[in-house]
Amino acid sequence: MRLFRFLFTVFHFTVVALLAGTALNAYVPPKVFAWMNMLSLAFPFLLIIHTVLCMMWLVLWKKRAFIFLAATLLFYYPAKRWINFTAPAEGEVADFKVLTMNIKGAAYGKETLYSYLKNSNADVILVQEYAKNLKNTDYPNTVQSYSIVGLASKTKVIEHQRIETSSNGESFYADIEIKGRTVRFINMYLNPFAFDKNKVKPSEDYEKNKRKVRYIAGTLIPTFKIHQDEVAAIRKAVLDSPYPVVLAGDFNAVPSSYEYYQLSDVLHDAFLTAGNGLSTSFHDYKFPIRIDYIFSSKDLKPISYWVDRHEKMSDHYPVIATFKFEK
Questions:
Q1: pTM of the shown model
Q2: String of b and e for 233-262 (b: at least 16 CB within 10 Å)?
Q3: Of 37, 122, 174, 281, whose CB count within 10 A is highest?
Q4: Residue ranges of the domains in the chain?
Q5: Mean pLDDT by 10 residues, the chain (327 residues)
C-alpha cells in the first residue's frame, strides 16, 4: 500500500508540474521550444486527472491532499478560460452584438446557416472559411475581398485592410461606425492544422500508434511556428489601432497556448468577464476544445458571451458576445 501511495504521489506531482508548465507558454515562443505549446493541448486532461487524484487523497484522508488542493489555486485562472461562471450584468444595456463563426464553406447546408446568421440580430458578423456569399445574410454592408475571412455589418464599414502574413491563414481589420463611434474589428484565422482524421484515431497496433504520434507532432510543431509570426502581425495591428478593438475568429489554438497568451496580453478575453458554462466551440473530435474567441480592448465592456450549440451548422459553433462602450 505504501508503494502504491508513493507512486501515485510522484505521478500527481508530475501532473501538477506539467499543468504549471503550460504557463511558460507566455514566455517561450514555439520557435524556441514548440513542445511547450503542445502541452497546452493537454491542459484540460491534466486538470481532470489532478482533480480525480485530489479526490482520491481526500477519500484516503491524507495530508498531502491539502498540498495538492492548495496547488489547484495556481490553475484557477487558466481553468476559467475553459469553464466560467459570472453573474448577469444587471441593468447593463449593450451597444452592439458580435458573432463569429467558422462556417466551413457552408458545407453543412447553406439555407440553415444563412438563415441563422440573418436572424442572429448581430450588428457585426465575422466568418472564417467562407464561400464569398455573405450577401445571403441580407446585411447592407459586407467585406468579401479576402479568400478565407469575411464580414457583414448592419452599419457603415469605413475601411478595411488585410493584415499581411505569409501563411495559409488570413486576417484583416475593418473600421466600422457604431452609434457615432468607430470600432476596429479584426477577423482572424490562424494557419489551420488540417489533420487527416484517419491518421489520428487510436489503434490497437502499437507501431501504428507510434506513426500517428509522429504524424501529429509533425503537423502541430511547424504550425505553431507559423502561428508565432501570424500572432506578431496581429498584435501589431492591435497596438497600432487608433480605435477600440474587437478581435474575433478561429485562432486554431487553445487557452494556455502561446497564441492565447500573446493576444490576451494586449486584449481582454470577453469570456472571462461575461461567459458562463463551457467555452468549447470546436466539437469535431471526441473531446471538444476551445479555439474560437472574442477579445476586446479596455474601452469596451463585455456584457454577455455565449457559445450557441443549439444547432450544428459547421464543425464549429458560433460564438456571440455583446459589448458596451465605456464612458
A1: 0.92
A2: ebbebbeebebbbbbbbbbbbbbbbbbbbb
A3: 37
A4: 2-80, 89-325
A5: 82 95 96 94 94 88 84 93 86 94 91 92 95 79 92 96 86 97 98 70 66 81 95 97 98 96 98 96 88 97 96 95 93
